[in-house]
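Weekly structure sync, notes
Attendees: PL (lead), two postdocs, one rotation student
Agenda item 3: pending single-chain targets
PL asked that the sequence for the first pending target be pasted directly into the notes so everyone works from the same version. It is reproduced below exactly as submitted, 330 residues in total.
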Amino acid sequence: MKEGREIFRRPGHPESKEDLAKREGVPLEMQQRFREVYPEFYQIIEKFDFPYLKERYGDIARRSGINPRTINFLGANNFIPVPQRPARQIPGRLGRMMRYTQEGRGSYDLDTNVGHINWPMMREMHGNKEEIQWLLPFHLLRTFIHEETHAVSKGVCTAFDEEAGKYREKQTGYEQWSTADRERGGEYFFKRFDEGVVEKLSQEILLDYLKNARDSNFDVTSVVRFLEWHKENPELKSYVNEIKMVEVFTKLISKVTSVPEEVVWQGIVRGLFEGENLKNQEIKDLVEEIVGFDLLEEMSTVRDTEELVQKLEKKISPTFIDRIKLLYSR
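Predicted structure, written out during the meeting:
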């Protein structure tokens, strides 16, 4: 079976465990410091049912041909809360990612293999308002699962840059990051599609977790209350347009190929865990033949996902489906 994470110093030369240990994870002294500053954060996440989550991700990996023992499950010790201001004062690899995370709820850094949660922002949004204070553990769990899904997706790093202290070629799930020149920064491909797949899968795992896991943060009443609130407040869900893009893409492939949507979706999940390369020309040509235009090229750098969703929805018309099926029947 394949492994869930592959790190290469350069193509064909895997990194040694000793070198990885120097660059990855959260130093023990930093963990202890954050525990002192943000005790509530750790009080909540340490009640999470990590064995259940790890088993759930392991089952998905197994179906994707990945050895469950090799999945890159972070757990509590490799997640840290991002401070509101001191992030600028923290140098190096962790400080750089903390500054980035201050722009959103959370992030996962493939270089350091650490998950970051914007705890001050989350605390301000939910913890300081009595009427929605009960939502705080749910939103922490939701963000945690999303970033954990990034972490367990197929991760590949190559071409380590000694001076910059990071890899030049990376892929996590469907998203690819590449730069040939340090001064240019990086180019991202399939970021929106990857986020849509990750969030759609994460929502499935979240709902499954709330119904079946052993987590003392939540009781039956609060879970039912959250599920109702979640249903009634769709505007507060993450990556709404990205999920819509994934769902319309799934529906289009299903209708053209007469394969059930759930089977197509499970194939997409498998690609997330296998690290399917959507820049592969054969895959691009196949999808273009199915949908009638170079969809993957547009998806690779799309910024306005809503516009692309509208374009895809037009392709699901009965006339288009009949025309494609006629083409395949010849």
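Discussion points:
- Residues 5-189 form one domain.
- Confidence is low (pLDDT under 50) at residues 85-89.
Action: rotation student to compare against the earlier draft before next sync.
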